[in-house]
Write a structure and sequence with these properties.
Number of helices: 13
Shape: globular
Number of strands: 0
Length: 333
């Protein structure tokens, strides 16, 4: 099994690396270097500073969600898990779900909580994020289409499918949660599947519904913190584009932001290749130049790799801690 995982990692890394070099060679190293040299140290510090601030907001969001469930953990202890899970998701070909799986496991092990609490925390955070990302996706897609002088039929179809699918999912969730009607039971009944007695899923659903009650301040504060996180991601895009091209149009930053999230869908380590391709497309479409798109991805990846390497330290630390806990448990038995 371990050999299989290593082979998957190597395969995805080689594919991503090959894709990366193809994009860079197509754009041209000379143009990329010229723009990179123009990006001075203090500008990089601004981008790194905003990136760290985004992470502080993310930790604050998890602390708030934990507190809503009756747990008040320190910022440091939560930061360890969040940085480590980011390292798993970013440096390894696990795409999105690998990092979330590790996060749920680490929450359970580190804080000695049940799977119910651990998975409830993850579910609440993901739904808050999806709700806010939906707004940015709509704004970004509209901005991108309005800034182009030529019709982009393929992009329009893709945007419609992605945004439409997310809209349907969120509508079903909020409608059912408002009426306190089980989504799981509806889902199983809709597809003609026997739901059985899944007590864990049912209990998690109840806790999630309890949080997403529009009559309480919890959901509004949670959405507000989530919005602040993604708004800072937008500001980071805006600054990067300003530093690279001198553009101050916020609509351009919105358009670029959605392509960052689209690139993150692909399971390449450090998003190698997919981020460059996405940014080359959007920067070229907006008349900012393909070379600036590649440079944008280089700088953004540089900031995120620093965070991921920082998280890798915590990943090793938590791995050793969980291993020792397991050994102590075996000795006790």
């Amino acid at each position: 099994m371990r050999v299989k995982k290593v082979l998957v990692f190597l395969f995805s890394f080689v594919i991503g690396l090959g894709f990366f070099f193809l994009v860079v060679e197509w754009v041209g190293w000379k143009e990329i270097k010229e723009i990179l040299f123009a990006f001075s140290g203090w500008k990089g510090s601004v981008i790194l500073g905003i990136t760290l601030l985004i992470w502080l907001i993310n930790i604050w969001k998890y602390k708030f969600i934990f507190k809503s469930q009756g747990y008040n953990f320190s910022v440091w202890s939560l930061g360890e898990i969040l940085f480590a899970s980011f390292a798993v998701a970013y440096l390894f070909p696990t795409a999105y779900f690998g990092g979330e799986a590790f996060k749920a496991y680490a929450i359970k092990k580190k804080f000695f909580l049940s799977w119910k609490i651990s998975l409830t925390i993850i579910a609440i955070e993901k739904l808050l994020s999806a709700s806010v990302i939906f707004l940015f996706l709509v704004a970004g897609a509209v901005s991108f289409l309005s800034l182009n002088n030529f019709p982009l039929k393929n992009f329009g179809i893709i945007a419609l499918v992605l945004i439409g699918g997310l809209a349907v999912g969120l509508t079903i969730f909020y409608f059912r949660s408002f009426k306190k009607e089980s989504i799981l039971k509806w889902f199983f009944r809709f597809f003609g599947v026997k739901s059985g007695k899944n007590h864990l899923a049912g209990e998690i659903e109840k806790e999630v519904f309890r949080f997403f009650d529009f009559r309480k301040k919890l959901i509004w504060k949670g959405l507000g913190i989530s919005f602040l996180k993604y708004f800072l991601a937008l500001i980071r895009c805006w600054f990067l584009i300003l530093f690279l091209k001198g553009e101050i149009n916020i609509l351009i930053a919105l358009a670029v932001l959605i392509f960052i999230y689209l690139a993150y869908v692909f399971p390449f380590p450090a998003k190698m290749g997919s981020l460059e391709a996405a940014q080359v497309f959007v920067f070229s479409s907006l008349g900012l130049g393909a070379a600036a798109g590649v440079t944008f991805s280089f700088i953004l990846r540089g900031a995120e790799i620093l965070i991921a390497l920082f998280g890798f330290i915590f990943l090793v630390k938590l791995g050793v801690k969980f291993f020792l806990q397991k050994q102590v448990k075996k000795v006790a038995l």
